[in-house]
Design a protein that fits this description.
single chain; alpha+beta; Alpha-Beta Plaits; 29% helix; Heavy-metal-associated_CS; HMA_dom_sf; HMA domain-containing protein
Amino acid sequence: MTTTKIQFTVQGMHCGACATSIQMLLSMQEGVTKASVDYDSKKGEVEYDPEKVKIEDLFKTVEEIGYKITKI
């Protein structure tokens, strides 16, 4: 399995629990091997298998719960 790692910024987080929620949501998606989100820097990183999931779909999933994601 070949994975891809993408970094992104997150707009709309109000606390550390927001970062945890986004991280958990991404981690639960099929094809994601690792996800991390940092509230202080407003940045995150996701490692995923592009054969199983598209980055656009991962970002859309997060945006559906009210956050704006921008690839770095």
